[in-house]
Amino acid sequence: MGATGMCRAFYKKDGLAALLMDFQMANSSEVLDALLVQPTSTGHAIAFNYLVPNVKGLQNFFHVLDSASTKTSQAPPSPPPTPIESAEWPASNTSAQDPNAVPSRASSDINANLSKSNTTEISVFAAATEAFSKANLNCSIAESLERFRPILLQAKERNIRVRGYVSVALGCPYEGPKTDPRKVAEITSSLLEMGADEVSVADTTGMGTAPKTRELLKALSAAGIVNHDIALHFHDTYGQALVNTVVGLEHGIRIFDSSVGGLGGCPYSKGATGNVATEDLVYCLHSLGVKTGIDTQEMAKIGAWISEELGKSNETRAGKAILARLRS
Amino acid sequence: MGATGMCRAFYKKDGLAALLMDFQMANSSEVLDALLVQPTSTGHAIAFNYLVPNVKGLQNFFHVLDSASTKTSQAPPSPPPTPIESAEWPASNTSAQDPNAVPSRASSDINANLSKSNTTEISVFAAATEAFSKANLNCSIAESLERFRPILLQAKERNIRVRGYVSVALGCPYEGPKTDPRKVAEITSSLLEMGADEVSVADTTGMGTAPKTRELLKALSAAGIVNHDIALHFHDTYGQALVNTVVGLEHGIRIFDSSVGGLGGCPYSKGATGNVATEDLVYCLHSLGVKTGIDTQEMAKIGAWISEELGKSNETRAGKAILARLRS
């Protein structure tokens, strides 16, 4: 198991938004162990997500999972819920530009499979460019996919949910801003065919722009990939994350990754900032009439708190503005 | 003349974007004097904008203008150019959402009136809510408009360009987020009828959202106000400035205010941050295919430099990312 643990939280008070809260952990085995032995008490379903780089990592993951299960005398985790809860999308006016362009069908269908239980899932990271794959995974894209195949197979045998990622989907620190959208679609398809429950298409460098996002989504659709198998993962490095999110919404995407306080980053993408801040994303979604069930004031407090705990600057505009208003 | 000087720069290398660079000055008479006696040398037309709160302020402004003119033995400033240069909007794909929704006609028509000379203009600030008008101007909205009438009359007699502003057009720190768009349209119309060359509709608090921006623009159009008489002025307090900009672009607005490094703020709007950063705005416009003629690397350097000079944090994501890439 890698040194990075990821806690993926799904909120479902009034509906649900899929939210990623990524943070670096000293030892993710310990985190997994703690979470399994002492599950968090929350009214919301939370998916705890663990990066599994190879089969050895998966075996470690199973080992921790099984020992924790023995410790708590609990059965292994229940079959994972469908990962997203459906946010309530307004019948109209969801979109800033063209309300008719936003179908609410996908999320409603998924709604039927909702489960309220927390779950544990694993993630595998592919890259959209050979150079980034080499830097991040030390192998070619094709080799990385072959490495993932047994991981997905074994995970599915144990009924563990798998999330695939395609990094640098809208620009690469090594190969530049023009990642081939057809290549992204090809890798996404491969991951889905191997059994990934969902693929997060990631703008790791933040080089994504509205037209590029649109082109990528068109390429994914053209490859036969349906919207509810995809999540979009934006970094706000160049300030374009919310504009790109609106493009995604209009295309029918309903799962967006983010991190409170805009935490995160990527060691292989110099100057990369963290994910778009959950506070900014949720503020934007709410402004468009989406009901996520998230209390933005509490979210803003969490962002400020965890940023301080980690000694990082709180990179959310909405969160800071909400807190400033609370103080005034 | 107020204590706030504003330098409004219009770039026109490949076309033009109207950009506001607002910064607080210790003494704007001195700034005006210096600029008139020693004009900046630049290949671009620059409009230097001075806030004139009342007739007394206008008289002071004329006084400085006339003495500077005597000092330099130059004629008073030449007739002001049409304030915006026309950026080159792409024939298609301008918009992130619907390229067909973005007519390029307005800016092309304006193009015909281009002038390359620098100019000096004045600005008057109205507010869209009674509470903000009282706090900012110490009078009702109606009284403020009556105060502006002789200012505009005298400015027009001297052939000085006038820019009107309508503050808190998308949310007020005192009256809340729901400013009446019809009231904004009414005040905008009044300013234009008095002779304002252009009115900047300002989201002073940053409470503007995509649907609210859209509703406001519809109200302005419904009141018979044409797009090329309007500028949009967003603050990125809640991170929504670029999403709102895209809404404005799609409506056909072509003038957007911003400030390098996201400088600025508003003493009467607690927690308000500065204008949206020029770096972020220009990066977004360029991503949509707009040619502004602005060198984003140089712009990023300026933002970092002036932020440091003023001891303020550099509030641009794009600018900082561009500089990080330059250093790597």
List keywords for this structure.
hydroxymethylglutaryl-CoA lyase (chains A, B), 8-stranded mixed beta sheet, metal ion binding (chains A, B), EC 4.1.3.4 (chains A, B), homodimer, TIM Barrel, metal-binding (chains A, B), alpha/beta, lyase (chains A, B), disordered N terminus, 328 residues, 41% helix
Task: Describe it.
- 2 copies of one chain form a homodimer.
- The first copy, chain A, has 328 residues and is α/β, with parallel strands linked by helices.
- Chain A has a single domain, classed as Aldolase class I (TIM Barrel).
- In chain A, 41% of the residues lie in helices and 15% in strands.
- The first copy, chain A, has 11 helices and 8 strands.
- Chain A has an 8-stranded mixed β-sheet with strand order 2-1-3-4-5-6-7-8.
- In chain A, strand 7, helix 8 and strand 8 form a beta-alpha-beta unit.
- In chain A, helix 7 packs parallel to helix 8 and helix 10 crosses helix 11.
- The N terminus of chain A is likely disordered.
- At the A-B interface, helix 7, helix 8, helix 9 and helix 11 of A face helix 7, helix 8, helix 9 and helix 11 of B.
Q: Give the distance, in angstroms, between the N- and C-terminal Cα atoms of chain A.
A: 46 Å
Order of helices and strands of chain A: EEHEHHEHHEHEHEHEHHH
Extended strand count of chain A:
8
Oligomer: homodimer
Shape of chain A: globular
Report the mean per-residue pLDDT of chain A as an integer.
80
Please give a quick description of this structure.
The structure is a homodimer of 328-residue chains. The first copy, chain A, has 328 residues and is an alpha/beta fold.
